[in-house]
UniProtKB/TrEMBL annotation:
Keywords: Repeat, WD repeat. PANTHER family: TRANSCRIPTION INITIATION FACTOR TFIID, TRANSCRIPTION INITIATION FACTOR TFIID SUBUNIT 5. WD repeats lie at residues 826-867, 869-910, 911-952, 954-995, 997-1038, 1040-1081, 1083-1117, 1126-1167, 1175-1209, 1209-1250, 1252-1293, 1295-1336, 1338-1379, 1381-1422. This is Related to WD40-repeat protein (Notchless protein). Pfam families: NPHP3_N, WD40. Residues 279-442 form the Nephrocystin 3-like N-terminal domain. InterPro entries: NPHP3-like_N, P-loop_NTPase, Quinoprotein_ADH-like_sf, WD40/YVTN_repeat-like_dom_sf, WD40_PAC1, WD40_repeat_CS, WD40_repeat_dom_sf, WD40_rpt. Residues 1-31 are annotated as: Disordered. Residues 14-27 have a biased composition (Low complexity). It comes from the Eukaryota. GO terms for cellular component: histone methyltransferase complex. The lineage of its organism: Eukaryota, Fungi, Dikarya, Basidiomycota, Agaricomycotina.
Length: 1498
């Protein structure tokens, strides 16, 4: 009995949502491949399969491949016989597979399928006549040869090798079978196989075959052999499908690289530029030639036409792997260096090896496509992928064509950052393996300088007196061909027009410039051809480009009296300086004119204007002509400032008219911009392209012009009425990262133009962005929902706009009373920013980072200048400018010191350095020396010109040297070290001066001289700042204290009256040198340790760098009021307890203090106790008079807050982790890392009995029973043990099946149960008498449970966890009685309830305590923001379903208070009235009832 196997499960391919039009396998082809695979796998090629194939083919294959007629014939004949049916099935299946191979561009399978289909069709045809053997032989031989060629294609071996024999073997076997078939057919016909390739005619071959009279059995044998080969290839198809599916998925990822599509420039006319094109082809095929070709010429010589022709001639992206990119000055915003290398990488990914490499890197997010580091982008996208290719034959090298290199950077040209980026990456081309580069450009200085360092093969297109004859002949051919095409448009074209003499004259006047000839052709073709050609030929003055362009303009606009039409002048101006290419519709909208009017002008400009894909001039020489001061057509002549002025006005006008509230009709404030954009058919439907352009580039144009009355009216309107709406556009269109720079330019422009009343408003806008750019970048709606209401009352923005949006949050306590001094944030580093410094002139900032780069920034705008300085192979720890600002020195963990040229970013000499990490570097005041300090414990001096060491190392420190600095006169050096000393050195002699300066009790992280050289300041890990007399070495005054973490950096102000310090606690502080008092606001916007600080030249600003990867600029003007000192712990709070009367709370912290707090006011009671050790656990005595605590030592201490007396309990041998006071007040119990529980007499402090032993690991928690007769303890050994207080013996182990550490235990009020908190995230109840678990575990926490407590009535259990939540459980059912209590921004370390059960107190690693009112759950019923909302690390306060309610600035996240919660501790408070707060789908009601200001639209 025959059985039919069921098809196997389908291979998973890309879903419809994952596919895109540019993927190699479309959805239709995916269906075809999938279905054909199933049929192959089924091995059931019966009649039913034929019907299935026919059904699929009718719906898919006819539109996927061109052989539908053959399929129809085969299906039609499939029912005649068993053999015919087999032939039909195989033919159809192979045609189907071929369709997939066609679409996937998998050449070997395509070739194989074509061969088999042709052979099978031929075999069927043989039965109708022996003459068909001619076609059979022709097909077999042809396909065998073609198939073998395809196996030799570039990159195919990479695929075959990756698939191993599963596909490689069958394909090669099939190729062999075809070759053998040719031989056998020849032998059967009595022919020598070689005769077919030696002039044997097909007719003679047919005669021989006819004479052979082959039997049907022979044909059947051929069928059988083909069937065997076909079976093997079908098995290989399974592997192909997997490969193609992977390729499709890879293509989806690689779509991130694809840039904007564009049309190539026109190619050279056929038959022209032949010699040059042949020379290029010869170079490309020469294995010994340079890997760069530079085609250089003057403007208009036809470089772009040659480049475009080379794409075709070299078959780029067809047979030859490669890419082409055409820079356009008019599209400088899109044709950038970043776009170039992304586009090239996308094209190179056609090679499977490169495709897999890039796709894998992109999936893992190992390539940052947004990085400003173009060198790194080039390395990851181009250099690394090409290096993965196996050694390629020279003829298979990829070829990259870059046209119009000189147009990179737009009108700024060589001065643009983008152009500099490109030049730097081209310097790296010599390192690129297996690839050739063709560049065309004008010969400009920076390009020539770049190629001088990397010698290319040069082709120079000569013009003028040096014009070669071939160029003239090519121009003649071009003119003849195109002018005759113009003539053919007329019914009776003139005979012999144009005349050969006219062609010759025009070619001579072209002077080698193809652009001249091209412009003539365009001009002649857009009017009366004969009349216009005569005008050019007979016009003696129409010889150069300027005369020709004037003729073109006058011919297009002949009726212009006294100068060109104003619309023409305006349109020309816009096209010249536009930052992006605009279409006629966009240009008309931007100018506020009828589109027909724009099209009319553009039609007249067609001889010099391209319109396809946007308006741009055909050649940059026309722009040069328009901007020439002696251009006679434009009176007065245009200047770039005129052009910018026109665009500035139009941009401001469009913004005034079109900006409005909720411009994209955002449905919910819970959505981020990415979600919003997915719901829109297109953003242009809401923010049309001309409004996007105006909003993005208005300041780029405005900064070039002075302030006129008309312009100022528009600027004022935008600032006073449209600012928030403008931010919406910036947010949704993705240029928020540029807003800081835009406002900086605006602020400068207003000051320069004396618009003083708007200067302060612009400054306020800068501060608004500095504080809220993070949330505005993510969500446009939160401009109104979060940023505006959280701005300080003194903010001019808030004062101006808040009355329009009344239905929102109202800050009732805390928050920003005024803007913090933060001015701007510099973003770009990919890891911690370790070092920062101002340039001597204050214009630039340099930074060094853990990302191994040094970066240069514009101090005023915060924009990065050029590319990162690359070279270090480890973290950069220190940077400094030379006194003249021309050099930067850096020290790194790679043990080197490097010098960089600030103009070029290149190293000026070979690296030099130490045998250990280089932590600190500095220039001498005269710039002639560099000093460095290292982990090798030495200080070294270097000559910056040569990089050689000066003298011997300065030795004396006994540990790492962390910081070094020169004195102002350059004669001395100061150093700070891990050996806790500061030392002075004679810079000339290399000897230590005097004794070490001793006083710090930990590492000295930073040292600096005062500007007069008389004092030294030092900052230390002991959290203090100290001053020293530079002459005597004595300490001056007392240490400055205030930081809660290591002092990492210190610096003097230029007037020596202030110092600035940065700390591990994330804050920056300013100090008065004379008084030691902290002055001004605490600078605390950083979200990590502050590593470096520096004053600006005028002392008004401070720059800082931090672990949070950001560099921040701060205003330090002296009118800032000093902050009130914050009260509370300065480190993690480990333990907290209520006093038995419920009126006080005690807390213990890693900051080595124990503190008492008033429950009603939240204020501290008296001075905290300095325990001198990190405090781990605290508890009150039953009479409320004493506090017992354990710390990082083996002792237990009893503290009387009234008398400040201590009682010391000694006996443990390791740190005490837990303490408890018995309810009867007689005992104190303690648990320790020594694995024992000890009992103490509370009155005498004596240990009672022997240690309670049994635990085999650290004891983490203990508790007394309510009757004081028993103790319960929990341990990391996974056990809970019960002890008898009177006998000191273990009663039992409570439940022996734990497999997790126990972190918390607590007795129920009746003493019958114990609650335990476990590492496995559960709370479990244990029966004290039986030791068994009661009920099921309480599940809900997502991290280990650190603390548990029973309510006084025993009905509920409270737990705290490292998941930052507090949960309340029903003690009987184990269910949560309410939503988790959220608010802590760190681990919850301890929870306990007040004696009356109405409050919970919790402690956390966020350094705070929180008092929770749990007696009134109705507090949370009627408000959106309550205690169950979670504060995420990114600042979003999330509702119960994770919806984003409001964004909170970083400094207020810990101190954000909801109703029913009081925060105790050192934090910035924020309390809000949310009664009018609207959010979600109601968010647009934010403006309901708002006051509409005059002139406000929207």
């Amino acid at each position: 009995m025959d059985t039919v196997r069921k098809p196997r499960k389908k291979l998973k391919g890309p879903t419809e949502s994952e596919s895109s039009p540019s993927t190699p396998t479309s959805s239709a082809v995916s269906d075809l491949v999938q279905t054909s695979t199933n049929i192959v796998l089924s091995h059931a090629l019966n009649a039913d399969a034929v019907e299935e194939i026919a059904r699929i083919t009718s719906s898919h294959a006819t539109r996927a491949q061109p052989t539908g007629d053959k399929q129809t014939i085969a299906v039609g004949s499939a029912r005649d016989s068993k053999g015919d049916r087999w032939l039909a099935r195989v033919a159809l299946l192979l045609n189907l597979t071929k369709s997939a191979a066609d679409s996937a561009d998998f050449s070997p399978l395509k070739g194989a399928c074509e061969a088999v289909v042709t052979l099978l069709d031929s075999i069927q045809a043989v039965k109708d006549g022996q003459y068909a053997w001619i076609e059979l032989l022709r097909a077999v031989q042809g396909h065998a040869a073609a198939f073998q060629r395809q196996l030799d294609q570039p990159g195919i071996n990479d695929v075959l090798e990756s698939c191993e024999e599963s596909i490689k073997g069958p394909i090669r076997s099939y190729s062999t079978a075809l070759q053998e078939l040719i031989a056998d057919i020849c032998v059967s016909c009595g022919l020598d196989e070689s005769a077919f390739g030696q002039g044997l005619t097909l007719n003679l071959l047919a005669q021989r075959i006819g004479m052979a009279k082959l039997e049907a059995s022979i044909i059947a044998d051929y069928e059988k052999r083909l069937k065997g080969a076909e079976g093997q290839i079908m098995s290989a198809l399974m592997v192909y499908v997997a490969v193609s599916v992977n390729a499709s998925a890879d293509a989806d990822v690689l779509n991130k690289l694809q840039g904007k599509e564009y049309t190539r420039p026109r190619e050279c006319l056929t038959g022209t530029r032949v010699e040059i094109l042949e020379e290029c082809v010869a170079w490309a095929r020469d294995p010994h030639s340079s890997n760069i070709m530079w085609i250089k010429a003057a403007p208009g010589a036809g470089k772009s036409a040659i480049a475009s022709s080379l794409v075709r001639v070299l078959e780029i992206k067809k047979k030859c792997l490669g890419s082409s990119f055409f820079f356009r000055r008019s599209e400088s915003a899109f044709t950038t260096t970043r776009a170039l290398w992304r586009n090239v990488a996308y094209d190179l990914a056609r090679h499977p090896t490169i495709r897999r490499h890039l796709a894998a890197k992109l999936r893992k997010e190992e390539i940052d496509l947004t990085t400003p580091n173009i060198d790194e982008l080039f390395r990851q996208l181009i250099e690394e992928p090409l290096s993965k290719l196996s050694k390629l034959p020279n003829e298979q090298w990829p070829i990259i064509i870059i046209d119009a290199l000189d147009e990179c950077g737009g009108l700024e040209g060589a001065h643009s950052e983008d152009r500099r980026d490109l030049m730097e990456t081209l310097l790296l081309w010599s390192k690129v393996p297996n690839c050739k580069l063709i560049v065309t450009s004008r010969e400009e200085e920076d390009i020539a300088r770049t190629f001088a360092l990397n010698r290319p093969y040069i082709i120079e297109l000569l013009t003028g007196q040096s014009t070669v004859d071939q160029a003239k002949r090519d121009i003649q051919a071009f003119l003849r061909e195109n002018l005759r095409k113009t003539a053919t448009r007329f019914s009776q074209p003139p005979v012999e027009w144009p005349a050969p003499t006219e062609i010759g004259l025009l070619a001579t006047r072209a002077n080698g410039l193809f652009i001249w000839a091209s412009t003539v052709v365009e001009y002649v073709g857009r009017g009366d051809p004969k009349e216009r050609l005569d005008e050019i030929v007979n016009g003696e003055r129409v010889r150069g480009m300027s005369e020709l362009y004037t003729t073109v303009l006058r011919g297009a606009f002949p009726d212009a009296e006294g100068g060109p039409p104003e619309k023409l002048r305006t349109i020309l101006a816009v096209i010249i300086v536009a930052k992006e290419t605009l279409g006629t519709r966009g240009l008309a909208d931007l100018l506020g004119v009828n589109q027909w009017a724009v099209e009319h002008v553009c039609h007249g400009l067609r001889p010099v204007l391209e319109t396809e894909g946007g308006l741009r001039f055909r050649h940059e020489s026309f722009v040069d002509f328009l901007l020439e001061t002696d251009t006679t057509y434009l009176i007065p002549p245009l200047t770039t400032n005129d052009c910018h002025g026109i665009l500035a006005y139009e941009c401001l006008r469009v913004m005034k008219e079109r900006l409005r509230f909720n411009i994209c009709e955002i449905s919910s404030s819970h959505l981020l911009n990415g979600d919003v954009l997915k719901t829109l058919p297109s953003i242009e439907a809401h923010i049309p392209s001309h409004l996007q352009y105006a909003s993005h580039y208005w300041m780029d144009h405005l900064r070039h012009i002075p302030a006129s009355k008309m312009i100022m009216e528009l600027v004022r309107h935008i600032l006073e009425f449209k600012f928030l709406a403008w931010l919406e556009v910036a947010s949704l269109c993705g240029f928020m990262d540029e807003v800081q720079s835009i406002l900086s330019m605006l602020h400068t422009w207003l000051k320069v133009n004396g618009i003083n009343d708007l200067v302060s408003l612009a400054m306020d806008m800068r501060q608004f962005i500095a504080h809220f750019s993070e949330v505005i970048t993510q969500s446009a709606s939160h401009i109104y929902v979060s940023a505006l209401p959280l701005s300080p009352p003194s903010s001019l923005i808030r004062q101006r706009y808040q009355t329009q949006y009344p239905n929102t949050l109202v800050v009732t306590a805390g928050g920003y009373e005024r803007w913090s001094p933060l001015l701007m944030t510099y973003r770009g580093h990919g890891a911690a920013a370790e070092a920062v410094a101002f340039s001597p002139d204050g214009i630039h900032v340099v930074s060094g980072s853990y990302d191994r780069t040094v970066r240069l920034w514009d101090a005023e705008t915060g924009t990065q200048i050029g590319q990162p300085f690359m070279g270090h192979s480890d973290r950069v720890y220190s940077v400094a400018f030379s006194p003249d600002g021309r050099l930067v020195v850096s020290g790194s963990g790679d043990k080197t010191v490097r010098l960089w040229d600030t103009k070029t970013g290149q190293q000026t000499c070979q690296p030099f350095g130490h045998s250990g990490w280089v932590y600190s570097v500095a220039f001498s005041p005269d710039g002639h020396r560099i000093v460095s300090g290292s982990t090798d414990q030495t200080i070294r001096l270097w000559d910056p010109k040569t990089g050689t060491q000066i003298g011997q190392p300065l030795e004396g420190h006994t540990h790492i040297v962390r910081s070094v600095a020169f004195s102002p006169n350059g004669r001395r050096i100061v150093s700070g070290s891990d050996d806790e000393t500061v030392r002075l050195w004679d810079a000339d002699k290399g000897t230590q001066i005097g004794q070490p300066l001793v006083g710090h009790t930990s590492t000295v992280n930073s040292v600096a001289f005062s500007p007069d050289g008389r004092r030294i300041v030092s900052g230390s890990a002991d959290r203090t700042i100290r001053f020293w007399d530079a002459e005597t070495g004595g300490q001056i005054g007392h240490a400055f204290m205030g930081h809660a973490g290591w002092v990492r950096t210190v610096a003097f102000s230029p007037d020596a009256r202030r110092i600035v310090s940065g700390s591990e606690d994330g804050t920056i502080r300013l100090w008065d040198v004379e008084s030691g008092v902290q002055i001004g606001q605490l600078l605390e916007e950083h979200q990590g340790a502050v590593y470096s600080v520096a004053f600006s030249l005028n002392g008004c600003r401070v720059i800082s760098s931090s672990y949070d990867q950001k560099i921040r600029m701060w205003d330090t003007e002296p009118d800032w009021q000093a902050d009130r000192p914050l009260e509370g712990h300065t480190s993690k709070v480990n333990s907290v307890a209520f006093s038995p009367d419920g009126r006080r709370v005690v807390s213990g912290s890693l900051d080595e203090t124990v503190a008492l707090w008033d429950v009603e006011t939240g204020k501290g009671m008296g001075q905290p106790l300095n325990a001198n050790k990190q405090v781990v656990t605290v508890a009150f005595s039953p009479d409320c008079r004493h506090v017992v605590y354990g710390s990082h030592d083996p002792t237990v201490r009893l503290w009387d807050p009234e008398t400040s007396r201590h009682k010391l309990f000694e006996g443990h041998t390791y740190m005490v982790r837990a303490v408890a006071s018995s309810p009867n007040g007689r005992y104190i119990a303690s648990g320790s890392l020594d694995r024992t529980v000890r009992l103490w007499d509370a009155e005498t402090g004596a240990q009672i009995g022997d240690p309670l032993e049994g635990h085999v690991h650290d004891i983490t928690t203990i508790a007394f029973s309510p009757d004081s007769r028993r103790i319960v303890s929990g341990s990391i050994d996974n056990t809970v043990r019960l002890w008898d207080v009177n006998t000191g013996t273990q009663i039992r182990r409570l439940f022996k099946g734990y497999a997790n550490a126990i972190y918390a235990v607590a007795f129920s009020p009746d003493g019958h149960r114990v609650a335990s908190g476990l590492h496995d995230r559960t709370v479990r109840l244990l029966d004290v008498e039986t030791g068994n678990i009661v009920g099921e575990p309480f599940k809900g926490h997502t991290e280990p449970v650190t603390s548990v407590a029973f309510s006084p009535d025993g009905r509920t259990v409270v737990s705290g966890s490292t998941d930052r939540t507090i949960r309340i459980w029903d003690a009987e059912t184990g269910t949560q009685v309410c939503k988790p209590l959220e608010g802590h921004m760190g681990d919850v370390t301890c929870v306990t309830l007040s004696p009356d059960g109405r409050r919970i107190v919790s402690s956390s690693s966020d350094m705070t305590l929180r008092l929770w009112d749990v007696d009134n759950e109705s507090l949370d019923d009627d408000v959106a923001i309550n205690r169950h909302c979670r504060m995420n690390d990114d600042g979003w306060l999330a509702g119960p379903n994770g919806e984003r309610l409001v964004w909170i600035p970083s400094i207020f996240r810990v101190g954000f208070e909801q109703r029913g919660v009081r925060i105790i501790g050192r934090c910035r408070r924020l309390k809000m009235d949310v009664s009018r707060f609207v959010h979600g789908e109601e968010w647009t009601r934010v403006k309901d009832g708002g006051r509409v200001l005059s002139d406000y639209e929207g």
